[in-house]
């Protein structure tokens, strides 16, 4: 007989691990200790959920309150701006009325003293100081320049002028 190597003829079945032992399958009810632990944790979770809900509601109400306060402050500021704008428009109207040429040509706004001869000999200022007049005749008023300046003012502030004031500045 020759020295040959032959594979075993499966005389012994292959074994994988220890087949003789199986872990016991305990299907017992959880112990009282485990039940108590679960109940305590469930209670803690509910408390945390309530705290989260409370914080969420507090945050929402605080945000809403701050938003409403901000809106009211913005509205108050807007009203102040509108009032300031109205004051400025009134000031411009007053300024234009003050600078507007009188309805009669050649007159001055305010109280004037009539000079029937048309001669200028002296000017008395508001403080009472007398100033000698010009050496020659009084030049006629330069109406076109007044009208042109008034027309420019009209274009700039025409929104705040009433119709009677606009007629004063219209081109002739």
TrEMBL record:
Name used for this protein in its record: Reverse transcriptase domain-containing protein
Q: What is the source species?
A: Artemisia annua (Sweet wormwood)
What domain of life? Eukaryota
Q: Where is this region: Disordered?
A: 1-22
Q: What is the lineage of its organism?
A: Eukaryota, Viridiplantae, Streptophyta, Embryophyta, Tracheophyta
